[in-house]
Design goal:
Strand content: 15-25%
Oligomer: single chain
Helix content: 25-40%
CATH topology of the largest domain: Rossmann fold
Number of helices: 21
Largest sheet: 6 strands, parallel
Length: about 550
């Protein structure tokens, strides 16, 4: 006999979980007791806030393709972690959030920290449930894992009443995950798609979404290159396609560059693979006519719930994107070289940037990062205008990865970087963060220090919530309210956590500092002075306009 907490941990180990993230709570002490004896299967990374833990689990799921596991306590712990659940859902990333729960006999009295988790998480998770008997733990955990990974991947929430996970049982743990075949493409549909691409004058592939693997990405690259069809990545999925290839034509995301927008608008046949047509990818749904595009739309998705949800396709295919790409790569189609070359030329033109205003030129910094980091480096970011640099002006090679939130959640970048280091301790991890974005979760530096998961963090410090300030200047000029930031000494803060910490006030000082950061065994935080904090509101607006003209160009 053993308690339910041990059964839960045994099941996770059998399913293949190797890491978990969380903040301790008295509501799931039995699980913490079981984790005491299972280092490596799964390890527990102790976090400083449940929001940070939720982000780490969401990022881990996105990076590895296996569910990121998160443990939090009831009530406030669960509500803090909800930001990770929402992010995982919008990222189509597998995740399981386990929440300690009050005893079953105490339900519906509004007792201390009581929350109905099915009702609370139902709208933002794939599935939210509660275990009602200790013997059902293997069944529920197996279903949670399968649900998180199958179809469109996403988060599952499982509530664990104290009396259930503390109860004795002799129920057997599950022996492994269910092996569910991914939906394969119909041969007739594949022939029809090839014929339509062959007839098109300006065909274009739009790829993205959760669930891509290296084999699928490589197969799509082979087909696009051989067929001379341009490829555009959906919002923040450009790392799933080699940007250095002639077929890559840019990213359709927030602040879509006009050159990339032109390529999308001018195509006459759109093969959309794995995408869900979110607001950012479609430029607030202004890029294509609704609900029927002027273009011929071929929509391929592993989940039938995503096909036809926004746009009515001319050809609909429910299939795993990796299997579809592999099948498609078996035979190329005749290309349209002029269209193919023009799309790439437009993308290349976006890199013709003038020097940027401010003491530290981020165009120069980004180019140096590009030239310096390892070919398998992992880049992360949260939300803010600062993210244009590693999202628009870094060319992701075959083995680079990007962890960035579809949800636009501030504070994601640092926890994601820590999760990436937990998963891949031998890879370089570089986090781009705004000064406001960084302060959402900067105490997680303590998590990094304790776990020995130490990334390099670049803080783009402009002394403000820059994105909101930009909109404020546009709509209410000279009436700045609630967007100025008085920041701490970020370098000193980093050193207090054992990191290398430096302040960079000149562009020419960055290269040496970045070399020290990459070499630091304890990780590093570089505070980059991009200069806006010293300007008047009118000067700030002028700088925003100058930067916009040179970068987002809209």
């Amino acid at each position: 006999m053993r308690h339910g907490g041990r059964v839960l941990v045994e099941c996770l180990a059998q399913l293949g979980a190797r890491h978990s993230f969380g903040v301790p709570g008295e509501s799931y002490l039995a699980v913490l007791d079981a984790l005491h004896d299972t280092p490596g299967a799964p390890d527990f990374t102790l976090c400083r806030n449940e929001g940070g833990a939720g982000f780490m689990a969401a990022a881990y799921g996105k990076l590895t393709g296996t569910p990121g596991i998160c443990f939090v306590t009831r009530g406030p712990g669960a509500t803090n972690a909800s930001i990770g659940v929402h992010t995982a859902m919008q990222d189509s990333a597998p995740m399981i959030l386990f929440v300690g729960q009050i005893e079953t006999a105490m339900r519906d009295r509004e007792v201390f920290q009581e929350v109905d988790y099915r009702a609370f998480f139902g709208p933002i998770a794939k599935w939210a449930t509660e275990v009602t008997h200790v013997d059902r733990l293997p069944e529920i955990i197996a279903r949670a894992w399968t649900t998180a990974c199958s179809g469109r991947p996403g988060p599952v929430v499982v509530a664990l009443p104290e009396d259930v996970i503390g109860a004795p049982t002799d129920v057997a743990a599950i022996t492994g995950p269910a092996q569910i075949p991914a939906p394969a493409v119909d041969r007739a549909a594949l022939d029809d798609i090839r014929a339509r691409l062959e007839r098109a004058n300006r065909p274009l592939i739009l790829m993205g979404g959760g669930g891509w693997n290296d084999a699928g990405s490589r197969a799509l690259e082979r087909f696009a290159e051989a067929s001379q069809i341009p490829v555009v990545a959906a919002f923040r999925y450009q790392d799933r396609y080699d940007n250095t290839l002639a077929s890559y034509a840019g990213e359709a995301g927030v602040g879509i560059l006009p050159e990339v927008r032109e390529t999308l608008a001018e195509c006459d046949t759109l093969l959309a693979i794995g995408v869900r047509f979110g607001e950012m990818t479609t430029d607030n749904y202004k890029l294509f006519d609704l609900p029927e595009m002027a273009q011929t739309l071929i929509h391929v998705h592993r989940s039938d719930r995503e096909i036809g949800k926004i746009y009515r396709p001319d050809v609909a295919v429910q299939a795993c994107q990796n299997l579809f790409a592999t099948a498609l790569a078996g035979k190329s189609v005749a290309g349209k070289p002029d269209w193919f070359t023009a799309a790439r030329a437009r993308y290349n033109a976006t890199f013709n940037l003038p020097d940027q205003p401010g003491p530290v030129d981020m165009a120069s910094v980004t180019q140096h990062v590009q030239n310096t980091v390892a070919p398998d480096a992992i880049l992360t970011n949260g939300a803010g205008n600062f993210s244009i640099w590693n999202n628009k002006y870094f060319r992701y090679g075959r083995d680079h990865r990007l962890l960035a939130p579809q949800s636009g959640a501030m504070g994601y970048g640092l926890p994601a970087a820590i999760a990436a280091k937990v998963a891949h301790r031998d890879r370089q991890v570089v986090c781009f963060a705004g000064d406001g974005d960084f302060q959402m979760n900067c105490p997680e530096l303590g998590t990094a220090m304790q776990a020995g998961a130490t990334p390099v963090v670049l803080i783009l410090n402009n002394g403000s919530y820059g994105t909101i300030r930009m909109h404020q200047e546009r709509h209410f000029p000279d009436r700045i309210s609630g967007t100025d930031l008085h920041n701490p000494d970020f370098a000193g803060l980093a050193r207090s956590y054992g990191f290398l910490g430096e302040r960079i006030d000149r562009t020419e000082d960055f290269a040496d500092a970045f070399a020290r950061a990459l070499a630091s065994p304890t990780g590093a935080v570089l505070d980059l002075n991009i200069g806006v904090e010293a300007l008047t509101p009118r000067q700030t607006l002028a700088q925003i306009r100058a930067t916009a003209a040179a970068t987002i160009k809209n």
